[in-house]
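Appendix B, record 7
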Amino acid sequence: MHRVRMSLPYLKEFGWEATVVTVDPKYSDLTKDDLLKKSIPSGTCVYYVKAFNKKKTSKFGLGAIALRALYFYYKKVNALLSKENFDLVYFSTTQFPVCILGAVWKKKFGIPYVIDFQDPWFSDYYNDKPKDQRPPKYWFSYRLNKYLEPIALKNVDGLISVSANYINDLQERYPSTKNIPTSVIIFGASIVDRQIALSNTEKSVDFLKSRL
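Structure tokens (predicted):
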């Protein structure tokens, strides 16, 4: 989410009018910092979608917010693409399952999509590790990612990553991605964030204390 948030001022500067669709924070377990909203350029159109209740979906082993929000993402963006003209769908998230919607919308509306990889999606890194060293629910996530990644990558129109290695791995698995634009953009810091933090020192300190 920070990649998108920090990019918004520059997108506007270079003539892109971004519309952001994100999950309503109340459905997330992550720590909230309201100061981050101050960096969003005025006039930016932001839509918040719902997610299924985690207490209910966890009973079926589905706690990831990407899976809980997938239907609502589809419903909202589908409505937007049906009514307005967009040039590109841009995914920048580590909640990768939502990226399969790019293929759905491209087929339905003919709109190209780009995926920004901040981490690897499908990986067999833990396959040769003892079970006690594998992440929780590894059996399920491994198979889910193995199935979903090809759906998202088969017809993707561009790749961005924080590491050239990620792109190289994807191009090895999906030869068709060798013929599309790619770019490596490392993680960065924001001058705007620093200015906001310095002008809200008390709130920043309170936020840091809440994390200790």
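Remarks on this record: The first helix runs from residue 2 to 13. The helical segments are 2-13, 54-57, 65-83, 100-109, 138-153, 164-173, 191-199, 201-211.
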